[in-house]
């Protein structure tokens, strides 16, 4: 799968350890954790407090994938 993407975008992959979970930048890590906590606190309308701080609001019917989508966006 990497080869077709590499050919399409014209860039070679640059493997780098700990890119996803690395703690090289603590401010970014803290912001990510805060976003995840905010997402869980407001999942399914549990709380409307601080809703004005949301960057994205996902309306939708029950069982349509809002929770996993919002967690993915928070990460």
Overview of this protein structure:
Helix 2 runs antiparallel to helix 3. 44% of the residues lie in helices and 0% in strands. The chain is built from three helices and no strands. The protein starts with a helix and ends with a helix. With 75 residues, the protein is mostly helical.
Task: Give the SSE map.
Elements: H1 2-9, H2 26-41, H3 66-74
Name some characteristics of this structure:
3 helices, flat, 44% helix, 75 residues, mainly alpha
Structural class: mainly alpha
Largest sheet: none
Q: Tell me roughly what share of residues is in helical segments.
A: 40-55%
In the residues, how many domains can be counted?
1
Q: Secondary-structure element sequence? A: HHH
